[in-house]
Amino acid sequence: MRILVCGGTGYIGSHTSVVLAQMGHEVRILDNLSNSSPVVVERIGLISGRRVEFIKGDIRDRHSLADGLAGGVDVVIHFAALKSVADSCARPLEYFDNNISGTINLLQAMTAAGVRHLVFSSSATVYGNAKQVPVTEESPLQVVNPYGRTKLVMEDLIRDYCVSHPEFGATLLRYFNPVGAHPSGQIGEGPIGTPGNLMPYLTLVAAGKRPFLQVFGNDYPTPDGTGVRDYIHVMDLAEAHVSALSYVSRNPGATPINLGTGRGYSVLELIQTFERICGVEVPYRIVERRAGDVAALWADATKAQELLGWRARFDLEKMCEDAWRWQVGNPDGYPT
Ligand code: NAD
Ligand code: UFG
């Protein structure tokens, strides 16, 4: 297939692009590099042994999208979004513009180019502060921060579009907590600036680049009091996109699908597993809860297995091992 990967130099997009290129798909990446490095394109080529086309451009720019969709594209995978919850609270308009306007623009460009298949990166954030875990795709949806609002609105936009264009197919992939890196250690999570997520911050602490990890609260109603999440290896997520491509090509309509392992781990369990597997100490301090955090969230991943024939293969140990290999080999992230 000819695939346009919007946001393909980012964390999840780069791992997915490697897998797609290795399978012989023609991959074209469109990314404005607002949160990624151009070096990623070389690394994808290096690992996959295949050339991947790269266009530096913004999905809010019609010309960039026209370039991206030129020559016939079978499927668009849409990773391109701003993703920090904290940032979204400080700069909501930027998030609405980038994520929501960008998605409208993308749907318009796809209409003009006659592209009918979309694989969309949604998030478990759409479940908000879920009353019951694990969450299924039918669990109530809820907005708890501006980032989450953009994901819900984007899902709704795509759903409405599918109703008005009955031949159009979209999977709304709700990722839980992606962690880890490609086993080669060549690509991984290389955000610009200080990471806000647990695993990339934890590996910085383990590497001695930060003095300690802040554990945000130990008074949650969870077994050890710290937050529980469904961590999923980024390579498992990448594989799920391959299955989603084939599903979306055969099934019109909008289909939400949870992508998680179906198992939750607490922050302390993650720290302990990391220390055991990587043989490095992770100093930490318990601090106040972080605003906007939920106590516990993990997936019911049955639908992914039923519809996509996909299930996560890698355990928490492998996630820690691969995240650490990436950190050790790339102590300052991607070269600038
Ligand atoms: P990322 O920031 O590493 O990748 C996103 C990429 O999109 C970046 O390379 C960035 O430069 C690019 N981008 C952003 N806005 C753009 C625009 N307007 N035009 C072109 N390119 C643009 O993030 P990620 O972790 O790889 O996440 C990918 C997707 O998955 C996002 O939509 C995110 O919301 C979603 N998601 C991520 C997580 C997570 O924890 N990483 C969890 C759930 C959902
Ligand atoms: N945490 C810490 N210390 C840190 C960072 C995080 O204790 O320095 C804790 C959090 O309180 C939470 C857990 O680690 O209990 C995971 O936090 P992350 O920031 O890694 O992930 P979140 O679950 O908050 O959010 C992530 C993405 C969102 C996405 C959501 C889906 O950042 O974009 O997963 O579940 F929507």
Q: Tally the helices.
A: 11
Strand order of the largest sheet: 3-2-1-4-5-6-11
- Give a count of the beta strands, DSSP E runs of length 2 or more: 14
Main β-sheet, in a few words?
Answer: 7 strands, parallel
Termini separation (Å)? Answer: 32 Å
Q: What are the bound molecules? A: nicotinamide-adenine-dinucleotide, uridine-5'-diphosphate-4-deoxy-4-fluoro-alpha-D-galactose
Residue-averaged pLDDT, rounded?
96
Helix content: 40-55%
Spans of at least 5 consecutive residues whose pLDDT stays below 50 are none
Q: List SSEs in N-to-C order.
A: EHEHEHEHHEHEEHEEEHEEHEEHH
> Could you tell me the strand content as a percent range?
15-25%
| Spatial extent as radius of gyration | 19 Å
Tell me the structural class: alpha/beta
Shape: globular
